[in-house]
């Protein structure tokens, strides 16, 4: 059998192909890790990475090579991966994209990081993200990316004058540019799916609670969920199999659902699969290019034997006000621990304790984080809790009920990930509401705690955005990740959108 390495460079191989080549000892884990490290430094201008530790990375790679040589290979042995800087790691800085945690070194690894390491994955480094995962463009990071002398935004490899999406923009950019075959991300309101769409890769957010939140710096605890970002559904299935599983001793929100092999049913037929198409996802504000690409993808699903079913998610528009009450409320509580006392930044000049709190938080939090803390504190305050927060929680329950009603007539739900393709850097920086509106299609599934993913389905054709990737969202019912991945994989077997890569990479 011809080795994939005989025709493709290592960075052009998928996780599955790399795993096969490593197991066959056609390439060593050390060679592979060094290749991706060199490549990441060569493309430092993208701003994707914020920290490296070559010694730790190569030590992990040598250990993987030793296991492979001894016939004790693990599922992902030697496969390089990079982690969003929202996960704490012992061997790399853990800053959550904030000045508040600049230089912070965790004494332990997040459960997701640990699980992937136990599966044999080799950590290349940490990836840039919006501060505390708050943002849709990755322009809210306060970090200086590796290879830069001052702050710089993460850039979209398809057009370096565009955003990569957020908050997992560094993860999406790194995978799209072939700086890493896969990366971890987190999704609170769409932060895996939206950057995956904007950068032309595949990403999946599992059911809330399927992957442990232990060691993931908290933004909104009832919404945050970890997931993988890679080039294909097959790769995501391999990674998700390692990431998921109960963690009751360290995460009280962890589901008591056993880990499973999400690759087991990838090749199953989707003949007769009922795909719900919500009318609310195709209304005013959806760009013509996105609509055309999603429509074409739905036709491809029909050709594969699936059936399209019109459905309604009537409270879709309410997801934005609901999310931007609940998420900031939880953020204001979670971020209260950052006060300059036990860890993180502390104001150098201050008076009494209260003054230290104020100056520390004023200096170290960025504008978007401050905005959300103030909103959250307001809606939780006396006299407003019932009017805002409690009402938002009631509507959240109704949004979840809308999905359950829809799933009575369909197996999966499909639609656009975002109304448009990636916008230009700085285009919406001074308009927070415009950024918030870009999450209209991803927020409902997050509020309901459902699994969802983005797969590449086309490219923009209009002159202004020509060639920019477009993703389609697939949503499943609770713990139906295997069905989602099966549908995505069958689509990718019939199309080649996920194989395209940006020029120059």
TrEMBL record:
A Pfam family hit: Amidase
Active site: 84, 167, 191
Sample GO molecular function, one term: glutaminyl-tRNA synthase (glutamine-hydrolyzing) activity
Catalysis: reaction(s): L-glutamyl-tRNA(Gln) + L-glutamine + ATP + H2O = L-glutaminyl-tRNA(Gln) + L-glutamate + ADP + phosphate + H(+)
Domain Amidase: from-to ranges: 31-485
Gene: gatA
Classification via HAMAP family: GatA
Enzyme Commission code: 6.3.5.7
Organism annotation: Rhodoferax aquaticus
Family per similarity comment: Belongs to the amidase family. GatA subfamily.
PROSITE patterns, per the entry: AMIDASES (PS00571)
Keywords: ATP-binding, Ligase, Nucleotide-binding, Protein biosynthesis
Protein name: Glutamyl-tRNA(Gln) amidotransferase subunit A
Annotated spans, Disordered: 143-170
Protein purpose: Allows the formation of correctly charged Gln-tRNA(Gln) through the transamidation of misacylated Glu-tRNA(Gln) in organisms which lack glutaminyl-tRNA synthetase. The reaction takes place in the presence of glutamine and ATP through an activated gamma-phospho-Glu-tRNA(Gln).
Database matches in PANTHER family: GLUTAMYL-TRNA(GLN) AMIDOTRANSFERASE SUBUNIT A (PTHR11895:SF151), TRANSAMIDASE (PTHR11895)
């Amino acid at each position: 059998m011809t080795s994939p390495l005989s025709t493709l460079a290592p960075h052009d191989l998928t996780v599955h192909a790399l795993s096969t080549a490593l197991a066959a000892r056609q390439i060593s884990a050390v060679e592979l890790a060094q290749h991706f490290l060199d490549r990441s430094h060569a493309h430092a201008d993208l701003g994707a990475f914020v920290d490296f530790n070559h010694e730790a990375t190569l030590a992990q790679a040598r250990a993987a090579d030793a296991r492979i040589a001894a016939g004790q290979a693990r599922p992902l042995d030697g496969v390089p991966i990079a982690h969003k800087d929202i996960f704490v790691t012992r061997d790399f800085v853990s800053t959550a994209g904030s000045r508040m945690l600049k230089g912070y070194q965790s004494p332990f690894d997040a459960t997701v990081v640990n699980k992937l390491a136990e599966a044999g994955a080799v950590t290349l480094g940490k990836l840039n993200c919006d501060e505390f995962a708050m943002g849709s463009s990755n322009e809210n990071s306060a970090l200086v990316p590796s290879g830069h002398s001052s702050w710089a935004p993460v850039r979209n490899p398809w057009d370096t004058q565009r955003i990569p999406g957020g908050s997992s923009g560094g993860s999406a950019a790194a995978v799209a540019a072939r700086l890493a075959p896969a990366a971890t991300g987190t999704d609170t309101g769409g932060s895996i799916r939206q950057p995956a769409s904007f950068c032309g890769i595949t990403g999946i957010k599992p059911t809330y609670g399927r992957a442990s939140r232990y060691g993931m710096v908290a933004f909104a605890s009832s919404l945050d969920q970890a997931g993988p970002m890679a080039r294909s559904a097959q790769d995501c299935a391999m990674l998700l199999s390692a990431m998921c599983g109960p963690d009751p001793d360290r995460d009280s929100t962890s589901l008591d659902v056993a880990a499973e092999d999400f690759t087991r049913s990838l090749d199953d037929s989707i003949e007769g699969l009922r795909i719900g198409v919500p009318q609310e996802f195709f209304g005013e504000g959806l760009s013509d290019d996105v609509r055309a690409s999603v429509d074409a993808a739905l036709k491809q699903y029909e050709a594969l034997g699936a059936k399209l079913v019109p459905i309604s998610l009537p409270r879709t528009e309410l997801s934005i006000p609901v999310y931007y009450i609940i998420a900031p409320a939880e953020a204001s509580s979670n971020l209260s621990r950052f006060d300059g006392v036990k860890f993180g930044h502390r104001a150098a000049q201050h008076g009494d304790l209260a003054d230290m709190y104020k100056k520390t938080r004023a200096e170290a939090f960025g504008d978007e984080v401050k905005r959300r803390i103030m909103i959250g504190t307001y809606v939780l305050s006396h006299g407003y809790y019932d009017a805002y927060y409690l009402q938002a929680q009631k509507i959240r329950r109704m949004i979840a009920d809308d999905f359950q009603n829809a799933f009575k007539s369909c197996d999966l739900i499909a639609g656009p990930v975002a109304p448009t393709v990636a916008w230009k850097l700085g285009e919406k920086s001074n308009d927070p509401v415009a950024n918030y509106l870009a999450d209209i299609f991803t927020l409902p599934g997050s509020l309901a705690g459902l699994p969802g993913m983005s797969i590449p389905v086309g490219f923009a054709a209009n002159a202004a955005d020509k060639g920019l990737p477009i993703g389609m969202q697939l949503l499943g019912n609770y713990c139906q990740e295997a069905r989602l991945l099966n549908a995505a994989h069958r689509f990718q077997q019939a199309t080649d959108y996920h194989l395209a890569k940006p020029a120059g990479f």
